[in-house]
């Protein structure tokens, strides 16, 4: 298994639309783990934040702990093929800009993928989450704000739909579709419970590749079996891509059939 990685990140001004944004650059937290310590691929001169180290330690312990359901996450963390960061409060302007900036870094570093799972985890320093609905509102505010920035430079991934009502909806950043997974302290699903409000971004193309190779259904069944052992039940919101809008799965809250996603896609240029 292999991942095609662009280790020569070069001049960010050439590929990152937010490279000149002072807020995005200031709060950028794009980090990697080499098996021994945390590194900053784009800014090796920056000292690693102590809270980032602690948040990352907790994240690794959870993902690599006994019976964690998601085998894709386990694979990414076992091979250190993931990137992460710790940002200001979820949905605030600085977090919106910094995460969008760092997702461009992620897309540029992992220009294409093979069989290895890769993932990007954005963790946030706050706010204190009051409920699943509270987190859901913050999550969609974050995704909406990032999309507004993104729409000035990129069009939506043509392989998916931008309307959250559509069964083929998937979030898109940098022209690449991504499945978002919310995690926070008040989550009812144990696999999504985490001390820091967090959003995991998985490139959709890796799921498409698994489907093309006939491996997706086997992996999905393994995850559901592990989740049954982990929590005693399967997440009722899970569905296959194309069966229902995946927007219903992002926050982790069990939503009703008449739930309306608050996200609204814009055309390129913000119109």
Give the SSE order as H and E letters: EHEEHHEHEEHEEEHH
Q: Could you tell me the strand content as a percent range?
A: 5-15%
Number of H/I helices: 7
Task: Count up the domains.
Answer: 1
Helical proportion, percent range: 25-40%
* Strands ordered across the widest β-sheet: 4-6-9-8-7
**Quick check: average pLDDT?**
89
Radius of gyration: 17 Å
Report the principal-axis shape.
globular
Cα distance spanning the termini: 42 Å
Please count the beta strands (DSSP E, at least 2 residues each): 9
Biggest beta sheet attributes: 5 strands, mixed
| Structural class computed from helices and strand pairing | alpha+beta
Low-pLDDT ranges: 1-8
Report on the structure:
It contains 7 helices and 9 strands. The longest helix is centred in the middle third of the chain and has 19 residues, at 132-150. Strand 2 (32-33) and strand 3 form a beta hairpin. The protein has one domain. The model is unreliable at 1-8 (pLDDT under 50). By secondary structure, the protein is α+β, with helices and mostly antiparallel strands. It has a 5-stranded mixed beta sheet, sandwiched between helices. A two-stranded antiparallel sheet has the order 1-5.
